[in-house]
Amino acid sequence: MISPMLVLVAALAAAAAPDAGPRGGRPAATPVNIIDGADDRDSLLVLGPTLGLSPTEIARIRTVTGFVGCLSPSPSLGAGALFLTDRQVLTAAHILFEPSGRRRSRCFFRTQAPSPETVDLVVEGGGARFGAERPKAGSAADFAVVQLARPIAGALPFPPLAAAPAAGERLVVVTAHPAGMAREVDKAVPVVQGCTVRRALAPRSPDGAATFRTDCDATGSSSGGLNLVRTGDGLRVAGITVSTGPWRNPRLVGAPYSEKAGSLTVALAAAGAITAAGRALAAAPPVAAAPPRPLAVEGPAPPGASALTTAPAHPAGQPGATGQSPTRQGSARQGAAPQGAAGPPQPAPTDHRRALGLGLDSTYAPSRPPLQPWAPQP
User: Fold this and answer.
1) For residue 143, what are the contacts with CB-CB under 8 A and spacing of at least 6?
2) What is the distance between the alpha carbons of residues 333 and 129, in angstroms, rounded to a whole number?
3) What is the DSSP letter of 291?
């Protein structure tokens, strides 16, 4: 039997390799936006202490943050974190939607603790709160708070700031594993960076989140990355990463921060609309996870994606190389486990190899960026 962790590491390593370029003979693209010089991102275990993170905070980050992905109808992968409770996750909504606006299914959250947990996300039946019915990627509505099929036992989410961060505030940004980083980082450990809020904007509508613009580096799978700030009461959630500049423009590699040129990263503030959505979901009764639907894609990988994006095709009823059916039969549930109780057995992490093999978030296609491209706004 293939080791689940070996499959995960191999899948992410293949996905992080340089893109061969879209069909039509165009040259390979460099994954950017790398702002103000070199790529400053590194492993939480390496960079965390230099950013002022204590061993207790590092362990807590690994317990509450991780991968967010979906399997069907096309794979997607980004980042997310527990939010307000141990049974709901905050992430970028576009990870959970097809570019057409169709909602994805078979979505999951996987922590990066030393003993990681993989738990299904309840995206249907009232188990999620989105910024809009069909959130536009990179917009002020590009957020989702989603119920987990069971709690993450012992996890303590970081509380949100009471107000949006101000220009000049220092950030610690945590991402599961962005593609195309300058440094080689263990895929089982979160990636962090210290960076700065450069400009903060008020929400444009009562239902929208406030946005802030940063000089944080961002490449594929950076969507949903947790933006933390340190206060007198400890670390607090400032927001999540949702978009960046033109990632296929090599002139922006290391370019100075510039909103006009698109050398910037955009995040949504947790205070306000996002916190209200999280509180509403936490107050609602837990929703039972729906039985899994058959995977929409089997056999060859989509054009431009890693060969590990899709599971191998197998005759009906026969298990795959990991000893489990590609339809992930073990994840069906009649109902969610009660708060604090042990949940039902979780599927092996290799059940999610199709999404993890992509290594880019849900806006990825051979000819489009891994994050919503930046468009200047007034």
Assistant:
1) 90, 91, 92, 93, 130, 131, 135, 209, 240, 242, 268, 273, 274, 277
2) 21
3) P
Mean pLDDT of 262-279: 95
Say whether pLDDT at 348 is over 90: no
CA separation, residue 272 to residues 94, 131, 175, 267, 350 (Å): 20, 12, 23, 14, 37
Closest CA to 76 of 309, 265, 298: 309
Q: What is the mean pLDDT of residues 295-313?
A: 30
Q: How far apart are CA 41 and CA 216, in angstroms?
A: 9
Q: Give dist(CA 293, CA 272) in Å, integer.
A: 35
Gap between the Cα atoms of 150 and 191, Å rounded: 25
For residues 266 and 375, the answer to whether their CB atoms sit within 8 Å is no
- Mean pLDDT computed over every residue of the chain: 75
The dihedral region occupied by 72, where left means phi > 0, alpha psi between -120 and 50, and beta the remainder, is beta
Structure tokens at 206: 């009562």
CB-count burial class (<10 Å; 0-12, 13-18, 19+) for 297: middle
**Confidence at residue 123, expressed as pLDDT on a 0 to 100 scale:** 94
What is d(CA 342, CA 364) in angstroms, rounded to the nearest whole number? Answer: 36
Whole-angstrom distance, CA of residue 216 vs CA of residue 17: 21
